[in-house]
Every structure is written in C-alpha cells, then in structure tokens.
Design goal:
Helix content of chain B: over 70%
Radius of gyration of chain A: 22 Å
Structural class of chain A: mainly alpha
Number of helices of chain A: 22
Largest sheet of chain A: none
Radius of gyration of chain B: 15 Å
Order of helices and strands of chain A: HHHHHHHHHHHHHHHHHHHHHH
Strand content of chain A: under 5%
Largest interface: A-B, 44 and 40 residues
Oligomer: heterodimer
Distance between the termini of chain A: 58 Å
Strand content of chain B: under 5%
Number of strands of chain B: 0
Number of helices of chain B: 2
Helix content of chain A: over 70%
Number of strands of chain A: 0
Largest sheet of chain B: none
C-alpha cells in the first residue's frame, strides 16, 4: 500500500485515540470555570510537566527549528537554548504565579494584571495583545502539519488538508473537556513526540555511521554553518538578539504557557513540572537541531527550508511505519499547542474582555458558553485563514521559526507590566497600559513594513519603548498602593514559608 | 544584597556570556567543539543552577 494510505491511517488512529482520551477526561470534569480552564488547579507533576512541554514545543521544533538549522546553521541551537535558559526565570515566577492564582482565584494571566493594577483596561489590553499575536503562532502550527503531510505523502495530501485536520482536532480537544482534556491529550502527545523523534534521530545517525562520523561529515562539508555569524552571513548578533529576546521571555509573556503556572496541585508537582520540562526541553531541542543538520547532509539544496524534515523523513532507509509514527508525533506537537492557545484565548476573552470590559455582571456559566461556543471556533477560523495565506509565501519572514518569534515579539510587550506586578510596587495601571499599547504598535508597524532601524529587530525596539514608557509613566502617575502592599506582603510571607526566592 | 538579587545578577551574567563567547571568542572555531559544544555546556549550567534552587522548595499551607 502507498505511503499516503499509511499516512491517512496513522492520522485516523491518532484522532481516534485523542478523542478517546479527551472523552475520558470529560468524565472527570467538574462544573465551573476554574475546572474547565484550569482543571480545578489539581494536576499532578507528570501531567503538568507534559502539558507544559507539549504546549511549549510545537511544530515549531521538528519543522521550524529543524528548518532554521538547515537554512542557517548552529545559531538556531543558540537561539532555542536561550529560550530554555530563560525558563530559569520560573524559579522566580512559577511560585509567584501559583501562589497568587490560588489566593485570588485568577483564571487567566491577564486577570492577575487586572487585579494587581486595579484596572480592567490593563487586563483587557493584555488579552487583546494575546488575541492579536497568538493568531500567527497558532497558524504556524497548522502550516507545520500541512507541510509535513504534504512532504511525506509526496504531494498526495495537499498542504491545506493537513491545515484542516489540525484545525478540527484542536477545536475538538479544547472543547470536549477544557484544560483537563487538553492536559491529558498533551501528556499523551508529548510522549509520542519525544519518543518518535528520538528513534528517527537514532536511525538517521546510525545510517550516517554513528555520532562521530556524523559530526566529522558536518565539519568537512558545512563547517561554515558551525560558527556564528555563518559563512553565508546568517546569525549576525542583531539577528540573534532580535529572534532570541522574545523567545527568552516566552515563559511569562505567552499566556498559553503562563496559564499553566496556575495548575499544579502542590509545590511538589510544581518542582516536577519545572525539572521535567528542563530535561524534556534539552533533549527535544538537541533532537530538532540534529535533524536539521542531518537534512543538510542528506537532502541538500531544498528550495523551502521548512521542508527539510519532510524531505529527511522521505529517505528510503527510514522504514515507512516509523515515518508514519513520527508524522503523528509532529502532528501531535502542533495540535497540542493550538488547542492550548485556543483554550487560553477563550478564557481571556470570557474573563478579561467580556466580563472585564463589556458586562461585569455576566455569570460564570455564560462566560463558559461564550468561550466554548464562540471564541474557540472563531479564533481557530482566523488562524486557519492566516495559515492558508502564509503557507503560500516564501522567504525567511514566512518560515515557521521567524514567524513564531515575531508572534512572541508582540507578546513581549506585556513583560514590563508582569515584572512590575510582582517586583515593583510603584508600577501603575497607566504605565502598564501605555507600555503595552505603544510597544505593540511599534512591533506591528516595524513587522508589517519590514523596518529594522540600525539593523535592530522589531521586538527589540518594542521592548525598549515599552520598558522606558512603563517606568516613566509609572513614576508620574499614582500606583494602587493598598493593593500593591497587600499583594506583595502576601507573596512575601508565603515565599518565605515555602523557601522560594 | 538579598539572595534574590544575587540570583538575578547571575542570570543576567549568563545571558551576557550567551552572546559574548559565541560572537567574540568562538567566531572562527568551525567545529562541533566550538559554539555547538559551548551552548550545550552553557545551558546545562543554567539548568543545574535552577535544580539547586528548586531543591529547597517546601510545601505551603
């Protein structure tokens, strides 16, 4: 039977298993908004770790990062490991988010900003930032699935079919049982992702004669790709900072991951989540980069670098069964990210925009219905349209990795306000509001026009503007003294009790 | 300075090293033992530091 038949068979099996897990999760689901969006803050260490990993690591890794390595060399490793090192910041932020979430009942990360700055406009603005900038990030996941299925089936499965499959699964996973189904399917998907990708790497490296021979071949054939900047001119220091800066703060700026800081059931579960993620992230990053380098050796000269992984998987020495399993693994990686994004956006719309701005009296049941029935499908359709449009484009800006980083550049604009919420009592709502809006406008304008004044990338300009504005405007406006005092005093007491820093 | 302050300083130092060594010290080393190996060691140090800090965390009421 043909590869495309087995590809369809693999995808069908994956969908059936995923729906089964989601339905099982639904049986454990209780009532209420906290249960739907946060699994009632009762996830154990293993599931917390796996959902954090699967949400963070997406098609970006095995398609995007492998493609970026293929096109630009070793700088891609530094870029992604800078993100992983940025997770170090969770030694500060994880206990703070977790403690504040339990004490004040926050459901979305933007709700924390609303309460801390005593301003609904601040939370609503953070939610709008997420709605705008997470669309391209969700879309690149769909593109990744489309490229993968198209490449592996030799063109028999159109790119748009892959995009549609990921769209439908993400809607189903996130609607069936909210965070609980997303987290459980994420745990399943994370295991599939890492095991299958490691096996493929083993097969490829074995084919190339083992790691020693693999590295020797790289050094002799593409040595210019093993230093920065590369011999082809990629990875100037400005490119590195421009891509890595938004990525560095990903763990607090991207609400679909920072919302997961609310869900561990205990401090032990938090420790397992963080420790497990570090190990998962290091292994997965190495695998993705080595995939990219393998493709450089085995399938040089591809026109579209994001096709490096599909081209690698099409090599005749890789068994078809393994290719299908890994295709399912990468599809799982993409869908586990999209469904988490949809769930987070629906919670932010319901809590921070609908309740925060439009109707403060809206019931929890109505918020849930709005999130489930309207926001999830509408945002999925917008991401679908974006994916369809971007999949037809070419060039560095439309590669998966730079597009993902561009999305995070917009979300980066909430970072000064998040730092201020926890570490600076003098921070004000006006400072937070103006910094987010002005920073986002700078990023959007520079990204749309392609401007890079002084060679500096849009995210960096936006970060400079929003940080300066946050401090300056906070100094000349009045902070919510009482709330800031109460909030930080509570955290200080609990941080001491838990021996956090 | 508080313990938190020292940890922040250490983190910022790590970030500076992240850019300075590859772009200024290893830029002509075109081998796997160059930037590739540096970034691996660098991130392992960051992860180990996080593990040391997290190890002390205790349950809270």
């Amino acid at each position: 039977m043909s590869t495309s038949f087995w590809a369809w068979f693999g995808i069908a099996s994956y969908i059936i298993i995923g729906i089964g897990i989601a339905i099982l999760a639904r049986r454990r689901m209780g009532a209420g908004i906290s249960d739907f969006f946060l699994a009632n803050r009762t996830l154990g260490g293993f599931v917390s770790c796996m959902t954090y990993s699967a949400t963070t690591y997406s098609a970006f890794m095995m398609i995007g990062l492998a493609g970026l390595t293929y096109a630009t060399g070793v700088g891609a490793l530094g870029f992604e490991l800078t993100y992983l090192a940025g997770i170090f910041m969770l030694v500060f932020f994880l206990p703070r988010f977790w403690l504040a979430g339990r004490k004040y009942g926050y459901v979305s990360p933007a709700e924390l900003l609303t309460d801390r700055y005593q301003s609904r406009a601040v939370g609503a603005t953070a939610a709008i930032l997420a709605l705008v900038f997470l669309v391209p990030y969700g879309a690149v996941q769909m593109m990744g699935v489309g490229y993968l299925m198209n490449g592996i089936s030799g063109g028999a499965i159109p790119i748009f079919a892959g995009i549609l499959i990921s769209f439908a699964c993400a809607i189903a996973w996130s609607r069936i049982a909210g965070m609980r189904s997303v987290a459980w399917t994420d745990a399943f998907q994370a295991l599939v992702m890492i095991v299958t990708s490691a096996v493929i790497l083993g097969v490829v490296v074995h084919y190339l004669g083992g790691f020693g021979s693999f590295f020797d071949k790289l050094e002799s054939t593409v040595s210019g790709q093993l230093a920065v900047p590369t011999s082809r001119g990629a990875w100037s220091i400005n490119m590195f900072i421009g891509l890595a800066l938004p990525w560095l703060f990903f763990c607090i700026s991207n609400p679909q991951v920072s919302q997961r800081l609310f869900v561990p059931k205990s401090v032990t579960a938090m420790k397992q989540m963080l420790g497990g993620f570090f190990i998962f992230g290091l292994i997965y990053t190495l695998i993705a980069v080595l995939w990219g380098f393998s493709a450089v050796l085995l399938v040089p000269g591809l026109e579209k670098a994001d096709m490096a992984t599909p081209a690698l998987l099409s090599q005749p020495f890789i068994p078809v069964a393994l290719v299908i399993i890994v295709m399912v693994g990468i599809t799982a990686a993409a869908i586990s990210t999209i469904d988490s994004i949809l769930l987070t956006l629906s919670s932010m719309w319901a809590r921070d925009i609908h309740r925060g701005l439009l109707n403060s009296e809206v019931s929890e049941a109505r918020q849930l219905r709005i999130g489930q029935n309207w926001v999830i499908p509408i945002m999925a359709v917008i991401a679908l349209i974006f994916a369809w449009w971007a999949a037809g484009k070419s060039g560095l800006s439309f590669m998966i990795a730079p597009l993902s980083s561009a999305a995070s550049a917009g979300l980066l604009m909430a970072v000064p306000a998040i730092f201020g919420a926890f570490f600076w009592k003098r921070g004000t709502a006006a400072g937070a509001l103006v910094s987010m809006i002005a920073g986002a406008v700078v990023v959007l304008v520079f990204q749309v026009t392609g401007l890079k004044p002084l060679g500096i990338w849009p995210g960096v300009w936006g970060a400079i503007v929003c940080t300066v504005l946050f401090f300056v405007i906070s100094f000349v406006t009045k902070p919510p003294k009482e709330k800031a005092e109460e909030f930080t005093s509570y955290l200080k007491e609990k941080l001491t009790e838990g021996k956090f820093i | 300075m508080s313990k938190m302050g020292w940890v922040w300083i250490g983190f910022v130092f790590m970030l500076v090293v992240d850019a300075v060594i590859p772009w200024f010290a290893l830029t002509h080393v075109q081998k796997m033992s160059g930037v590739f190996a540096f970034w691996l060691v660098w991130v392992v140090v960051a992860i180990a530091a996080a593990f040391v800090i997290v190890r002390n965390w205790r349950e809270v009421k």
